[in-house]
Amino acid sequence: MNMEANQYRKLASEFRTKILDGFYKPSEKMPAERALSELYRVSRVTVRRALKVLEEERLLNRIQGSGTYVSPKPEMRIPLVIDYTGSMREHAPKLTRKLTARKLIEADISLAAELKIKPGESVLKVERTDYLEGQAVACDVGYIPRVFARDLTDEDLGKVNFIEQWTRKGSFIIESCDQMVEAVETDDILAGTLQLGAGHPVLKSTENYLAENSETAGRFISFYHPHFICISTRYRWKK
User: Fold this and answer.
1) Residue 217 and residue 174 in contact, taking contact as beta carbons nearer than 8 Å
2) Euclidean distance between CA atoms 156 and 173, whole angstroms
3) Taking burial as the number of CB atoms within 10 A of a residue's CB, which of 24, 95, 182, 223 is the most buried?
4) Burial class of residue 138, CB neighbours in 10 A (0-12, 13-18, 19+)
5) Is 72 helix (H, G, I), strand (E, B) or coil?
6) Radius of gyration of the chain (CA)
7) Which helix (H) or strand (E) holds 111?
């Protein structure tokens, strides 16, 4: 990680803490970029990138020609793009992951169809929970065909940057990922994991990772605590 990335993320973390602790009040105008640059002895580019991170988290609002203001109701939301690792590295570097279960299962007809394998083939099923300062913010269930699960250890499966570790260890490249996001209600087990009431709405994301030979390398079904994580996408109109 380069020095500039370290600087703006550290600065974003400091601003975030001050906003959530009330040092910067709701709707208060933030100091100008130049003033912050001089105060923290960093470049204006570093300040601008740090403020952008918090704008994406809905903690700040930038008004063209007026300045940057603290949100009227500052509650941190981690903006999640399909690159989960990148999102957490940018907005929640203290996130930790716990592997709660792993076992080999035989794919039934439905799972086999999703993974594009034959029914009865071996699949590694994993269950994991992600925590931010002791609070469960996400959990997932993953299904990895045995050919793509060789040599995966518990330590590998418990890494936040699992995708990078997975492809490196398996010596394959992910060509694409299909994602479907929907709102669902928690059952008793999911409610207990995310510390929510039963029937509470949560975000569910189903992702199929395709290797470069069009084989399905894995299928992951993730559930995100709605008070901490939101789905964020961007479409560029200009071609």
Assistant:
1) yes
2) 17
3) 223
4) buried
5) coil
6) 20
7) helix 109-115
3-state helix, strand and coil shares in percent for the chain, rounded to the nearest 5: 35, 35, 35
Question: Torsions phi, psi of 197, nearest 5?
Answer: -75, 150
- Name every residue whose Cβ is closer than 8 Å to that of residue 64 and which is 6 or more positions away in sequence: none
| Three-state SS at 16 | helix
Q: Which two tokens stand for residue 66?
A: 């007026």
Average pLDDT over residues 20-25: 93
Mean pLDDT computed over every residue of the chain:
90
Q: What does pTM read for this prediction? A: 0.76
Assign 44 a pLDDT band (cuts: 50, 70, 90). very high
Does residue 3 carry a pLDDT above 60? yes
**95-123, pLDDT tens digit by residue?**
999 999 999 999 999 899 889 899 999 99
Which tokens belong to 72? 């009227």
pLDDT for position 4: 65
d(CA 146, CA 233): 32
**CA torsion angle 137 219 127 86 (round to 10):** -40
Identify the structural domains of the chain with CATH numbers, from first to last: 3-70 (1.10.10.10), 78-231 (3.40.1410.10)
- Distance between first and last Cα of the chain: 31
Residue-by-residue DSSP string for 172-219: --EEEEEEEEEEEE--HHHHHHHT--TT-EEEEEEEEEEETTS-EEEE
Would you state the pLDDT for residue 235?
64
Give yes or no for residue 64 having a pLDDT over 90: no
Q: State the CB neighbour count (10 A cutoff) for residue 227.
A: 16
Element (H, E) at 104: strand 96-106
